[in-house]
Specification:
2 domains, single chain, about 375 residues, Aspartate Aminotransferase, domain 1, alpha/beta, Aspartate Aminotransferase, domain 2, seven-stranded mixed sheet
């Protein structure tokens, strides 16, 4: 039995009527640019993230770029972030004219190490970007304290709906940062039928700036207070996301159930290190990422068995050719580099059947039983 890494068709089949109706409403109204669905979705995502304001934009990368711009990051500034993440995190810093300053990760969560953030803060530091990798929130309260007043952007592209208990209170992904950013790329837990992104904040002044930046620098048509961007969330995508949002909690719960099944199934396989979720966190498992020493061999075995899998991410950002100008060298961030050699993500999507889960487990176990 072949098992894909992700089966979007299976999800679509369960919500097709709702999504088609939502899309056709936009088509019938012909309100394709900043239609009412955009504002409605912004309110819903603000509520989910326990934030005062939300601003939709074209994609998750633009969400980072606009957040950096709203915080005044520009040429000559530095932004502290992780080298073990998707390229957009550091790419947005570069494209804003600033310099990424990398610090290593915690080996169990894969998230940025707060104590290393504190050591990296310098006179040119204008922001910190903390990434919630694979669906688990970074230690946002520790990172904020380590930043010492420097604003923190929470790259929550993989963690919408995730939460963390801080001082006895449940804090949602995006809530506690100066600006939280989300991606609605189709593979995300809340994914559109194309690109989309959003930013959330508690700060009204930042909200106003973000609203201007996404529409060429002004709130009124043909009046521009700054030079902004054309980065609007498409109304059709907002309609799709609105139709999907009521299912998000259930989908994330199903991912946690599948993760628990894998955890138990691999508990007696010492070669497989299963994901560790910090006790204060509730993960949404955007990915179920194991660590193995013989990854190439396991990958070949899974491919032969028809089991979908992927490596997020095979080369840490400080070693990417485009960032050679930063002057980092191999061995400088050992935990990120080790993770890049060992991580492997298995199917975790909520529509997996019991038979499919058994097939994934059988394939992994059979490799180590040889």
């Amino acid at each position: 039995m072949a098992v894909p890494l992700l089966d979007l068709k299976a999800q679509h089949a369960t919500i097709r009527d709702d999504v088609v109706a939502a899309l056709m409403h936009v088509v019938d109204q012909q309100t394709f640019i900043l239609g009412e669905e955009v504002g409605q979705l912004e309110c819903q995502v603000a509520g989910l993230s326990q934030s005062r304001f939300a601003v939709g934009c074209a994609n998750g990368t633009d969400a980072l770029l606009l957040a950096l711009r709203a915080l005044g990051v520009g040429a000559g500034d530095e932004v502290v972030t992780t080298p073990f993440t998707f390229f957009a995190t550091a790419g947005a810093v570069h494209n804003q004219g600033a310099r990424p300053v990398f610090v290593d990760i915690e080996p169990r969560t894969f998230n940025i190490a707060p104590e290393q953030v504190a050591a990296a803060i310098g006179p040119k530091t204008k922001a910190v970007i903390a990434v919630d990798l694979f669906g688990q929130m970074a230690a946002i309260e520790q990172i904020t304290a380590a930043a010492g007043g420097v604003p923190v952007i929470e790259d929550a592209a993989q963690s919408i709906g995730a939460s963390r208990v801080i001082d006895g209170r449940t804090v949602m992904a995006g809530e506690a940062a100066a600006i939280g950013t989300f991606s609605f790329f189709p593979s995300k837990n809340l994914g559109g039928y194309g690109d989309g992104g959003m930013m959330v904040t508690q700060d009204e002044a930042l909200f106003e700036t973000l609203m201007k930046l996404r529409t060429h620098g002004g709130r009124r048509t043909y009046f521009h207070e700054m030079v902004g961007y054309n980065s609007r969330l498409d109304t059709l995508q907002a309609a799709v996301l609105k139709a999907k949002l009521p299912h998000l909690a259930g989908w994330s719960a199903a991912r946690r159930k599948n993760a628990a099944f894998y955890d138990a199934a691999f508990a007696d396989v010492p070669e497989v290190t299963t994901p560790w979720v910090e006790p204060s966190n509730t993960s949404i498992y955007n990915q179920y990422t194991i660590r193995v020493s013989d990854r190439d061999g396991l990958q070949a075995h899974l491919k032969a068995r028809g089991i979908g899998h992927s490596v997020y991410y095979p080369l840490a950002l400080h070693l990417q050719p485009c960032f050679a100008y930063l002057g980092y060298r191999e061995g400088q961030f050992p935990e990120s580099e080790r993770a890049s050699r060992e991580v492997l993500s298995l199917p975790i999507y909520p529509e997996l059947t019991a038979a499919q889960l058994d097939e994934v487990v059988s394939a992994v176990r059979s490799y180590y039983a040889r």
